[in-house]
Design a protein that fits this description.
Number of helices of chain A: 3
Number of helices of chain B: 4
CATH superfamily of chain B: STAS domain
Distance between the termini of chain A: 23 Å
Oligomer: heterodimer
Strand order of the largest sheet of chain B: 1-2-4-6-7
Low-confidence stretches of chain A: none
Order of helices and strands of chain A: EHHEEHEE
Shape of chain A: globular
Shape of chain B: globular
CATH class of chain B: Alpha Beta
Helix content of chain B: 40-55%
Structural class of chain B: alpha/beta
CATH superfamily of chain A: Histidine kinase-like ATPase, C-terminal domain
Number of domains of chain A: 1
Radius of gyration of chain B: 13 Å
Radius of gyration of chain A: 16 Å
Structural class of chain A: alpha+beta
Number of domains of chain B: 1
Largest interface: A-B, 24 and 22 residues
Strand content of chain B: 15-25%
Number of strands of chain A: 5
CATH topology of chain A: Heat Shock Protein 90
Chain lengths: 148, 117
């Protein structure tokens, strides 16, 4: 692993009080990707936002008996992509069936997945060993070649 | 939820003194606005200048207040949005719904104009 590789696994209680901690951690983490030459602050903010949305969604859909279990988050680099995985123990849902919000209807909810889809390059939700995983990927801008 | 409240000639000025509005405190904001609008408050001006992060649940709480205000023939306007917060309103198209002003005075002027029209 070189110094710019990132592989971070976090486990916190499924409580909304941890949203800021994990979201802000992801934002700070963006500054550790040395060769990234895009808008680091903007991407950091977007990661904070999508993690907050994804974790809040996972907490909301975690059934009561599992409320004591930990909510797991995995942030790592996979080739040219930054990959964020949020694991939950809920019944799961079909990501393809999640409709974009009706912008005229003024519903109070239903924007979380929309926000994630807007800010990330790919979003996938699937079954895994002990529940479900929401995987969000963002392509990192290729590093600027260094002249020798 | 840390909010300050001030009455200015029948207009309620609120200042949200939180850096983040997310699922951890948006329920508190929603209830706060609901309680205000169900009692005497009819015109609310919310200062968001201290908020530098808002998620979809925070937007939902404000939207709930906006709808409640309309239901009670009142109004709810916002001012002082930081660029990140403004970008969330734009991403979700909610800048088309809310009346958003750069500062408190312009928000007050809007409410006063509404009273006299």
């Amino acid at each position: 692993m070189n110094e710019t590789d990132i592989d971070l696994q976090i486990a916190v209680p499924p409580n909304t009080r941890y949203l800021s901690l994990v979201g802000n951690l992801a934002e700070v983490l963006m500054h550790e990707i040395k060769e990234y030459n895009g808008d680091r602050d903007l991407l950091g903010y977007h990661l904070n936002l999508v993690l907050t949305e994804a974790m809040a969604n996972a907490i909301e859909h975690t059934p009561p008996p599992d409320k004591c279990d930990k909510l797991r988050v995995h942030i790592h680099i996979d080739g040219d992509y930054l990959c964020i995985k949020v694991y939950d123990h809920g019944e799961g849902f079909d990501l393809n069936q999640v409709q974009s919000p009706d912008f005229q209807a003024l519903d109070e909810g239903g924007r979380g997945i929309f926000v994630i889809k807007q800010l990330m390059d790919t979003v996938d939700y699937r079954k895994c060993t002990d529940g479900n995983v929401l995987e969000m990927r963002k392509k990192l801008t290729p590093p600027i070649p260094v002249a020798e | 939820m840390n909010i300050t409240e001030e009455d200015r000639n029948g207009i309620t000025l609120l200042c949200v003194k939180e850096q983040r509005l997310d699922a951890n405190n948006s329920g508190d904001l929603k209830e706060y606005l609901k309680r205000l609008l169900e009692t005497e408050a009819k015109a609310l001006i919310i200062d968001l200048s201290m908020v530098n992060f808002i998620d979809s649940s925070g937007l939902g709480a404000l939207l709930s207040g906006y709808k409640n205000a309309n239901l009670h023939q009142g109004s709810l306007v916002l001012h002082g949005l930081q660029p990140r917060v403004q970008s969330m309103f734009e991403l979700t198209r909610l800048q088309r719904v809310f009346d958003i002003y750069p500062n408190q005075q312009q928000a007050l002027d809007h409410i006063e104009e509404g009273k006299h029209s």
